[in-house]
Structure formats: C-alpha cells, structure tokens
Amino acid sequence: VTTARGHRPPQGEPVLDRAFALLRAFTAERPELNLTELGRRSSLPLSTARRMAARLVELGALERTPKGRYVVGVALWEIASLAPRSLGLRAAALPFMEDLYEVTHQHVLLAVRDGGEAILVERISGHGAVEILYRVGGRVPLTKTGVGLVLLAHAEPDVQQRALSEAAGTAAGQAALRRTLAGVRRDGMAIFRSGDPWQVVSVAAPVRDADGTVAAALSIVIPDGQANPRHLVTAVRAAARGISRRPTVG
Amino acid sequence: VTTARGHRPPQGEPVLDRAFALLRAFTAERPELNLTELGRRSSLPLSTARRMAARLVELGALERTPKGRYVVGVALWEIASLAPRSLGLRAAALPFMEDLYEVTHQHVLLAVRDGGEAILVERISGHGAVEILYRVGGRVPLTKTGVGLVLLAHAEPDVQQRALSEAAGTAAGQAALRRTLAGVRRDGMAIFRSGDPWQVVSVAAPVRDADGTVAAALSIVIPDGQANPRHLVTAVRAAARGISRRPTVG
What we know:
The first copy, chain A, is an alpha+beta fold. Chain A contains nine helices and nine strands.
C-alpha cells in the first residue's frame, strides 16, 4: 500500500511505521475493519494491531463503531483539514467552483499532484450528473484526466518522463503525449475525452500560487457530445485565474 | 491542545504521543510552522521535533514548503478522507446541500459531534454570503449554533449535563436551555439567532443513520431579518431526511 501511494517505507521508527500501516489499511472500498482485518491488511501481529488501534482510538485517529469495528476518526480529519493543499486550497476555490457548477450542473473537479498521481481535493456534482469514478480524497491518473494532464504538463521533467514511459510504451506514443503536454502549456488548458465506458469530456485549467507555480488544476466534466467543450474553456480558465488570485493558494 | 480537543493524552506510547503532539501544533491560524515553532508548540525538544518531523515527512503526514517550513501533508488528508463521519457523510449530503444552496446562495452547513463540541464537516457558501466564523474542519460550540443545538438535543445525558453547566451558569439559564433542547427534539428542528456581531439566523435539522440515531446536523444560515426562517424549515428538514436515507450515513 505504501509504495502504491508513492511514499517510501521509512526506517528506524517502528512504532510510527506501524501506526501508519494501520491507518493505511483503510480504503474507500473497506472504510470499516474489524481487528483481524486490521492486522492482516497492515501485516501486523494481532496483539500489536490491538494495542496500536487502542492508542489510535485514544488519540482520536480511529473511532469504534457501535459494533466494535474500527473506522478512521473525525479528529484525524480535523488535523488533516489544515493541509494547505487540501481544505485551504478548497476554501479559496469553492465559490468559483460553485459558479462553474451552476453553468452545467455536472461535475466540477479540483486536484493537486502527489508524486506520479493526482489527488482529488474537491468535487461538486449534481443529482443528475453523469457517473464518474473519482471521489474526493481519491487518486486519479495524470495521463487519463483533464486535471491530470494540466498537472503533468507543469510537473518536473523526471515526473513527466516517468509518466510518459508508464503511459505510452512506444516511442510514437510518448511523442504524441509530449505534444499533448506542450499544447496544454501553450494553450493554458487541456481538453480530454475519456472514451469508453464513461464517454465524458473534461475541460481543465491550471491554478497558480503567488509565485506563478502551478499548484492545482480545475476542471468541468460533462457528457461527451452534450455541449461543445470549447465553449466552456473561457469559463474554466477565468475561474482558475480567480482562484489563483486568492491569498490562501500556496 | 489535547484537552481542548477532548482527547485524553494516552500513556505508554511516547513516540505516537509525540507524533500527534507535532501534528496538533498546526492550527487554522498557523497552518505553516518552522522547526522552532513546531518544537515550542508541541513541547518537544528541538532535536526530537526535527527527527519526528523528518519521519512524518517521509510518511506523507507533513510536507515541506519551498522555504523549508512544515505544513500538514495532503497524504494525511487522503487517509483522513476515509473517516465515515467526514467525507463519507459529506458525499451522501452534498447533492442535497447543493439544492439548499441554490435556494438562498448563503451558507449551508453540515456538522457532527465530537465530545462537547461539533466539527464542521462541510460548508457551502456563495461569494456574497454573509460572513460567518466557521470553517470546514473547525469546531463550533454546541450551545451557540443551530447545528450544535440539534446535536446536543440528541446527545447522551452526561454530554447534555456538561454542556448545560458550562453554557448556563444559573439554574434558570439551565432550565431555559433544557426547554430549548426539548423543543428541538419535539419539532425535529432548531432555529438559532446568533445576535451580535454576526446577526445571522440558522435553521437546522437532524440527519439520522440507518438505526435512527442522530449522526449529523444540517443547517442553512442567513442574515437575520432577510427572510422568515420558518419558511426554510420544510426545505432543511426534507434535505436532512434525504441525506438520512443514503446508505453511506452511519
């Protein structure tokens, strides 16, 4: 799990490593675990898992359900809400996202990059919006989403190179992706069509911090064929610029 | 800080205690700290703070800014987003909150109780909304907000008794608050006027889990005197019931 999330397992502080192994045992598919599952998924002996889980409950990082199962605690979320790249950014972005949402009543997404993936920081969706896979707090691929392409186009060369080799096996494929990224930088926006099975198109633009560095990406996702995505470009770029001017970004 | 957040400092796992002391050093007012500040605010020796902070950076729980200061990491937020009482609840609530937002373009709040306080899980606010203090991830008092009164009215007797003695010194004050809470339970909603300096009024209703237990509270907050809050009661109660029917709640 740790490698999938792009963080090296550190050496020499076993208690902390175990605590995070326990916390990382929870996933969107399995947000509620009993002690046996916790032990298995974190690769910890049952007695260690029990003791660590009890400590984490005392610290508010875990909570127990009425049935005695474990879930991630709202007090951990309270601390995590102070991450500038999650809720701080989101607070700056939300009024602009609301405006975009009212134009389409589909999806409006906000994402930041973490290593070779993007994390979805916010998503506003209507009742009747087309179904998409991505949830807030979840990871999205850099080369298969509009927000991802924007973040990748402005990433360090080594991140781009790794993404290019993973996403496109052939030299021709890599060259095509390189041209796409150059286009995203030149135009200040990305248009990405998902193809099957979702058949959605996203229009994405970069959000910059005070130094002009790309800190996040904003997008509208609509059903493909419903509206001309080019007509949404100005609205998305204007909203992304509006967010960039807010002092809380970066 | 730990006592203010309602969690006892646990005994016997000093590394974990120190790690959480470090994480709790960050606040909404000070989301970015240098090493000296980290040490002072977590009451740890500088060398310990440096070593722990480095580990937490490796684990993704902290990040370093280009200037070398520390912030809470988006990877911690990624784990915390799995807390059922934060983003799980929020995912169920958001479409209904959007609908309420479009009625007023003011504030729509969603909160859960943690000990003797409430934590704001979600807030939707327009550009032109009246200014209110509360931020997502922050704490709000049980006796001085609409969502807080709803949560308090359905809390265990000992939580109610503690809140009553803290909020209302005199026996007459306590009796008045008791009557208010009984009214909230009877009517299935709370109307709360903030008075100075905000002059807002909130209309709140309970969100229940599958067992009928009150899991959260939903509210609309509008400027006092702008609209009759009674006219919003049906909309808020209907939205709260809609959220309660979603399988992800509780």
